[in-house]
Amino acid sequence: MEESEVASQKETVENVCVKDCAENKSNEATGEVSSQMSNPGSVCKPSEETEARYNRLKLFNKVMQKSLEKFIDHASFNRFASAFRPLYKKNPQRMESIHKQFIEELRRTVQEDISRLIEEGRLEFKLNELDKLESAAKNNPDAAWRPSGVPEQDFCSFLMPYYQKQEAYMRLELKKIQAENADLAQKVQAGRESIAQTEHRISTAVDEWKASVTEFERLASSLCPADVFDV
């Protein structure tokens, strides 16, 4: 098959797809108008797409699937065949079969990577938590924080409460440390006084012992005069 024939077939398929899409849109528009006319209250009811839009996990899956489809579209058969033109000219049917297997394998591999990403990143749990936080915030009467337009004020308004809490915590810890230091100082002073008293008692005992020894020597010398033992 020549390149011009492939291009013409591609153009024909695209024209058919465009025509079908236009007809589907017109039919959908007609159906929506008729349904709204028949049931006026249905205009106010949120559709499934609107509900899914607020579910982050569904939105993530939808975005991934659309991205995958666009990625698959870039790997079209025409590009695949142009990359392997000699093989395509020899056996176009075989090339179509190879391209089909390639697309299936590519889709499966990418889908497994997306599933692994969701599982390893715990995206389902985290996105559901975000949905819960959003629904809880709707019932909160307080207004959400908004920037004032002055980055310095916003930065200070965020950091000042944090630093104030840290300052209060450090003051409390400082009081605890000061109380512990005062207690230790009292214990040290009491220990020093006890040592001083012990030293005084020891000094007094030594002085008393020296006095008793002196008195004993004096009595011994008076009872035993030295001339008695002279020969």
Q: Secondary-structure element sequence? A: HHHHHHHH
Which residues form runs of ≥5 with pLDDT under 50?
1-53
Number of strands: 0
Q: How many helical elements?
A: 8
> In percent, how helical is the residue content?
over 70%
Shape: elongated
Quote the distance from N terminus to C terminus.
157 Å
Largest sheet: none
Q: Give Rg in angstroms.
A: 48 Å
- Mean pLDDT over the full residue set: 75
The fraction of residues assigned to DSSP E strands is under 5%
Q: From the helix content, strand content and strand pairing, which structural class follows?
A: mainly alpha
What can be said about this structure in brief?
The chain is an all-alpha fold and 231 residues long. It is 83% helix and 0% strand. It has helices at 3-38, 48-53, 56-74, 77-83, 85-90, 92-120, 123-138, 151-223.
Structure description:
The protein starts with a helix and ends in an 8-residue tail after the last helix. It is elongated. By secondary structure, it is mainly α. 83% of the residues lie in helices and 0% in strands.
What are the defining features of this structure?
disordered N terminus, mainly alpha, 0% strand, elongated
Layout of helices and strands:
Elements: H1 3-38, H2 48-53, H3 56-74, H4 77-83, H5 85-90, H6 92-120, H7 123-138, H8 151-223
